[in-house]
Amino acid sequence: MKLFELAENTFSSIEAGSPELEITSAAGLDLAGPGEVTFLANPKYTPQIKQTKAAAIFLADGVAIDRDDIAVLRAKDPYLAYTRALRLFNPEKPPRPSIQPSAVIDETAEVADGVEIMANVVIGAGCRIESGVKIYPNVSVYEGVRIGKNSVLHSGVSIRENCEIGENCIIHNNTTIGSDGFGYAKDEQKRWLKIPQVGRVVLEDDVEIGANTAIDCASVGETRIKRGAKIDNLVQIGHSCTVDEDALICSQTGLAGSSVIGKRVILAGQVGIAGHLKVGDDAVITAKSATSHDVEPGKVISGIPGFDNKEWLRSTAAYRRLGDLAKAIRSIEKRLADTEKS
Predict the structure, then answer these.
(1) What is the per-residue pLDDT across 70-90, written as a single tens digit (0 to 9) for each?
(2) Where are the chain's structural domains?
(3) Any idea which fold 3-89 has?
(4) Fewer CB in a 10 Å sphere around the end CB: N or C, the chain?
(5) Does domain 98-310 have CATH number 2.60.120.10?
(6) Are strands 222-225 and 242-243 parallel, antiparallel or unpaired?
């Protein structure tokens, strides 16, 4: 791909270098070689520019480099431009329309043209699989499931009964969509009686779910993951939860039942959300934090229980000094005691 073509497709402009320069791939500063484009987004990596062998680099406005042998592409967001370059050089492989002979497809299921179904896939009664879908080996699709156009289900995925997967979704290995919600009532003998879980899970369009994640169905009604939400590996989404558009949920996070996560919320790794809570739009909960109360839109909270991030940072700074403070208090107490004796 010529440099000018790369610029056009990444919404950047050429500041230095020949527009005819051939670019073959994209890589990070420390990995890029001849013919590859790289980027600088974080100033702490600026020293690596001296050693990089890249042929071109995405830079933000106002950022200068002391090299004249690298083509410069100016971009409002260098990381975004680099991501677009990666996508250009590594396009998704389209499905190869076919059904592997070992797949088991119920006669009442509707499978559109242009679908690729690989070995040992099982598709239950009344399912509807739309065009462009790719289903990898050993996927189980229970009865009544709908899978929208161009979605991809990787090996080992299970989609439980009556769930709905939107268009352009990606579900990674060994994830379960629609597992039973964790619901029990205690009977007269104080034994746990299972509550029937007859609801479903709906993934809207452009949702991506990582590996080994479980999203529980509702006892009645639905659990809904809205358009563009991204959920990492090893995440637990409880029954009747709602995750709104473009939310980002990182690994090992757990949502108890009926949680409501707002638009563009970021839940970092190992966050815990108690049940029946609402996290407002654009809020951020930092890693290893937990909340037992609603979170206001736009707030950044940390800790257990979670509170304002700036206050948490001050508190942790004080916590690290507790030993010194205790020592100082003991010294003061000793001086007071000596004064009283004298």
Answers:
(1) 999 999 999 999 999 999 999
(2) 3-89, 98-310, 315-341
(3) 3.40.1390
(4) C
(5) no
(6) parallel
